[in-house]
Every structure is written in structure tokens, then in C-alpha cells.
Task: structure prediction
Amino acid sequence: MAEATRTRAERRNVNAPGYTVRFALVVCLACAAVVAVAAVLLEPRQAANARLYMEKNVLIAAGLAQPGDALSIADVDALFERYVEARLVDLQAGELVPENAVDARAFDQRAARNDPATSRLAPTNKAGIHRLPDRAVVYFIRRDDAVEQLVLAVEGLGMWGTMYGFVSLDPDANTVGGLTYYEHRETPGLGAEVASPVWQRVWQGRKIYDDQWQARITVIKGIAGDPEDDPLRVDGLTGATVTSNAVTNLMQFWLGPHGYGPFLDRFREGEAEI
Amino acid sequence: MSTVIGTGGPAPIAFGPKERAILTDPLVANNPITVQMLGVCSALAITTGVDNALVMSVGVILVAMVASLAVSLIRDRTPTAIRIIVQLAIIASLVTVFDQVLKATFYEISLELSVFVGLIITNCMVLGRAEGFAMQNPPYPAVLDALGNALGYALILIIVAASRELLGAGKLLGYQVLPLTTDGGWFEPNGLMLLPPSALFVIGLLIWAMRTWWPELVEKD
Result:
């Protein structure tokens, strides 16, 4: 009885406007504190996970790992040690940066692209790229000393945000060996299929360049032919035209004259030997 | 407190028949998905594999329990006019924290669940228990009620996910259980089971089975 009346009395004064505002403020501050503490404490581990996942995607693009593999940092390090050599490319000159000048594996291309000292404004393009880094990363995949694949970093504006991925090319610097996207904000179930291994498999064996060495690879609406008959076209993603076009634009940009194009020309002519 | 003991009511942390009922009722007889029809959208979206369903279940169980505890603790101090948004703020904060923890521990699963973890916020089951039960009851029964409902939700999620993964890919938790014809086995996977509509079929079949088994679940009209 006493409890019931007390509760009712409290009920009455908890509905006073001043109290309501104060209560809302306290709840907001408490919730904000909980979220902020969690975000700050967990940030280092999230960053480490994101980096591990990025490097795992280099290995997936190169065919050295499968999407479902559970790889630890040590596993990725071992594979990198054995097969992968990370280097930086001076994009405009198309030349490799000397090996001991910089630690290419630790290179943060996004930070470099945002820093005015190490980047420039990108020429007008359809890929939604505003700034271009002066240097970009390339991973040489070697087996028995011969370069087996070149893995290049690509990015571009998708439907809801920037998509980040890797494309792997055969030593002819034209045939696609693999493609992955490790970070994107595309619509789950539709555009997010860019990250699906099923779709990424249809890229294998496609060609980037036509016979004039123009980057012409295009994601079409519908289904493309076999890579042998229809090498410059790739099946589109159903219900994701914007994402499909974004992939076309970013591939053509990064493999074109403002991206890795100059470097790939030199590599093809054997001038960019490592 | 003396009134409670005087009337011979249960001690605050006892686990008697009443508490058992609060906990077990939502498992089957009053299951949030198949009987109350709450939280169905997430059940459709993330039940392609048992691993996703397990992570989602853990998320909903933790969020529901802590949210009900918090809402119950401040129930006498919460202004009536803003009680729903207060509950939502608590639930949204907890879900955000869970999402952060997931990104720090199971990064690839967090990528796959993507927006659906965030959608726990709008899972009517969590808000329903906070508003419908925790606002009127002390913390201990409120937590039990949230646990019971979340377990009932998890139960359906895992049943649906297991049947979809088994029939759609011949796998359970990523391990090949039924040998596929493409690998020389006998099982022809049904790709439809991996698409969202199949979750609707499986949940529909479950509801039908439960109502046939327990006719008292059928509403009188």
C-alpha cells in the first residue's frame, strides 16, 4: 500500500516539464558515454582487423587464399613473406619507387591521397575520384622468382559510398586473374554482391584493354559471353545498375592513363623490372 | 519491502513456478516470432547460415536482457511522455556497442551481418518487452522475461537457418554435411533456400506445425 502510493506520487512529479528535460539529458549523456567508451577502447582491434582483412583480400585477388579461409595475422604474414612483394609506383611517371626508400606494405594510400603534400586533384572522371595519390601500391605475386600476378588497389564511388578493392592481373598486364572488394557500402542483397565470390569469379580471364591499349572493360546489363569470345564485357549485377556502372568507371580509371596505365605500359615492355 | 515479505511473496532472486513461466512461456507457447509475429524481418534476412543466426541470436539476447534491466531500473523515474524514446536510446546504444564489439572480434561476420545488426534496434521484440513488461516489473522478472523472449526468437532463427543452410548448400555451420552432386555425392542443393523468400516458407511451415501440434495457439474468431 505504502509502495503503491509512493509510486503514484513519484509518477505525478516525474511528469513535470523541468524534470522531463533533465531526465532526457541524463539518459542521453549516459548513453553517449557508454557508446564513446566502447568505440575508443575497441578502435585499435577494429583497425587491426580491417587491415588484416585488406591484406587477406590481396591474397584472395591473387588466388593465394579463398574467401572463407580463416587466416590469422601470422598466416597472412607467412604468405606475404613467401609470395608477395609490395612496392610503390609513381603513378604519373609509371616508375617503381626504389625498394628501400619506403615500406610499401605499411603504406597508407588513403592517408596519402588525403594529404595535399602527397596527392593532387584528380582530372575530371566518372569514377567519383577527387584526389589522386602521387604513389600507389602494387603487389607482385612471385612463384619461383617469376612474377605470376600483379595486384593493384582500386577505389571509386559506388551507390552509397566509396568502394575499395583489388584487381589482380596476369603478367601480360591485361588478363584479369581475380577481383575483390574489401570495403563498400553498397545495398545489402543487391549492390553488395560486388563482394560476392560468385560474381568475382566471372571476372577471371576477362581482358582490360582493347587492341589500342585503351582500358575498355565494361560491366554490362545482362550476361556476357565466355571470356574467350567476349573478353571486354562482364555480367552486370541484377538490381544494381549504379554499382555495376561504378565498377566499370573505377576499373577504367585506375587501369587508364591517370591510374596505373603508365606503369603497366612500362611493365609490359619490360622496362619496369624490379 | 516489508509488505512483500509479509504477504508471503517470493524473495527477489527466487526461481519459482512464476519465474519459470516467465522464462519458458515465450520459448514455444508465446514465441515472439511464430506466435506474436515480432522480429520477422530480421529472421528473413540473416538466416542463410547457422553462424549468422548464432551471432544475431547472441546479439538479441544480450541487448534484450540489458535493455530490459536498464528500463526496469529506471521505470519509476521515467517520465511517461518520453518513455518510448528513452527505451529506444538505451536499446540503440546497446546495439551500437554490440556492433563495435563484433567488429573488434568477428570482423568478417560483422561485414556479412552489416546493416542487420543495426536493425536489432528496430526489432519490435526488444522494444516490445521493454515497453510491455520491463516498464511495469522489477528488474529480476524483467531480465527473465527478456531472456525468455530472446531465446524464443533465437530458437526460431536457428531452426530456420539450419534448414536453409542444410537444404540450400548441404552444409551446417559451414561444414559439408550432405555430399553435393557437383562433388560426386547425391544431394542436389536447392538454391531457392538461400534466397529470402524461403525463410518466409520455413517460418510459415513452422507456424502451421506449431498450431497443429498445440491447437490452443489458434485464435478464436
